[in-house]
Amino acid sequence: MQLxxxxxxxxxxxxxxxxxxxxxxxxxxxxxLRADRERAERLSEALLDLKARIDETLICVVEAPLDxxxxxxxxxxxxxxxxxxxxxxxxxxxxxxxxxIPELLDRLAGGEVREVIVATNPxxxxxxxxxxxxxxxSPLGVQVTRPxxxxxxxxxxxxxxxxxxxxxxSRRQVL
Amino acid sequence: MRLVSLTLRNYRNxxxxxxxxxxxxxxxxxxxxxGKTNLLEAIAILALSASPRSRREADLIGPAAPxxxxxxxxxxxxxxxxxxxxVAHGSERTVKTIRVDGVARRAVDLPGEVQATLFWPEDLNLxxxxxxxxxxFLNEMLVQVVKGYGRTLASYRRVLEQRNxxxxxxxxxxxxxxxxxxxxxxxxxxxxxxxxxRAGAVSQLAPLAAANHGAIxxxxxxxxxxxxPPAPLGPALAASLEEDLRRxxxxxxxxxxDLSIRIAGSExxxxxxxxxxxxxxxxxxxxxSDLIEARCGERPILLLDDVLSELDxxxxxxxxxxxxxxxxxxxxxxEAEPFPAAxxxxxxxxxxxxxRVEPCG
Lengths: 175, 361
Known about the structure:
The structure holds 2 protein chains of 2 kinds.
Chain A: H1 5-14, H2 22-34, H3 37-53, E1 55-62, H4 65-73, E2 79-83, H5 101-109, E3 115-118, H6 124-137, E4 143-145, H7 162-170
Parallel strand pairs in A: 1-2, 1-3, 3-4
Helix pairs in contact in A: 1-2
Chain B: E1 2-11, E2 14-20, E3 25-29, H1 36-48, E4 67-76, E5 79-89, E6 94-100, E7 103-105, E8 116-119, H2 125-128, H3 131-145, H4 149-171, H5 180-216, E9 222-227, H6 233-239, H7 241-247, E10 258-263, E11 266-267, H8 268-271, H9 274-296, E12 301-305, H10 313-323, E13 329-333, H11 341-346, E14 348-353, E15 356-359
Parallel strand pairs in B: 3-13, 3-14, 8-12, 12-13
Antiparallel strand pairs in B: 1-2, 1-4, 4-5, 5-6, 6-7, 9-10, 10-11, 14-15
Helix pairs in contact in B: 4-5, 4-7, 5-6, 5-9
């Protein structure tokens, strides 16, 4: 049976979504065919807003999926994420190939990304991973940055961890 | 610097102990295996944040107890501090928690609050034993006087372990050399900080040790020199890479440091008599206490564990002269015999038996 061209196109787009096969795509398309115009407008607006809000030239690299939630909660960051699922740690038999570094380099190959923020934890392995990423990403002409270390907001200076306080003092900013 | 009181709970063979310490000489007498060393170890832990004798912290927890604790009140630099250290059996590993005046502190940041110099029979290896004894001597002194030294040392050890694992992975064809420079840079940066601290301390320690040695051994010259890695460390690491890959471990760096100790111009480890070696050990330990005092402005607590019986009369007298100089001293001994009566009169003497401390007799 020949379907009208707009319906055919919608089924085509829907079936490209993750987890959606041709049958589901058809069911969703017919659902929108029956729904009123307002419903369709709300969906298309939401999709467009989403794309307008996300800065696709920015990738934040984190160690674990939960780190994504932590950064998302700040509502400050509008770029993309890349989860490494680990850090460099030869002791645990984890090298660059064992975490998702090759995939990150693939994402950068397109040339749209201009900055990579390496938000690995500030411990020995996290710092080593950040240094390694800086080494392999900089030659691609992409800027590599690291989140600032500083004093916790609302914290009492007297009880600040010494190392944090020392770093905050040495990397102070002009007001 | 002085310890006002000490409380132990489920700490090795002490189920429960609270003692007050007097500002000068505190003498604890007891037979072997009654808890003398454990008592001094507990005080040393507050200075070093780790046991000077056992790597396994679970060993500190008494039988059938979930956790051990060491609490102390300390007077120093015009202020009173309350320190509490707990070691508990965790589900995966031993958990150590530290509080200074009730505020949680990371273990690496505890040293520096209390300074102590521990001298026990194990130290007799300082001159005749392998270089690891001399590195340990430097580390235990430096964590107490150089801010951040303990943290740098812990990070250095971790990065070294990572690099050694990476060397093996590269040699085994599991990984390329791409990430090696990252570890090398970090190792060189941390290593250089250790080298700087050690070299500075040894240049200050050498004349102090020489003066102490000269005073005990009628002017016999003692020379101490720091023997560190080639500088700068970064290029030295790069130069030893092929050798390191073959061996699967890192051949240069402060983890291979040593102290050169020469008595009357000859290398003490091989050529000195046992008596000379012991004089050098006493001189080094006293110099450690001198250096801590010079850097911190206060005499460290001197902890002497059963060492007097190991020393002959002139060395014992040199050590006891220090005991009479002021500053707090905590001494353990099997017998009161080596102590002069004049000293015993000023001392608080107690007896240790089966993990209990009581008045003697």
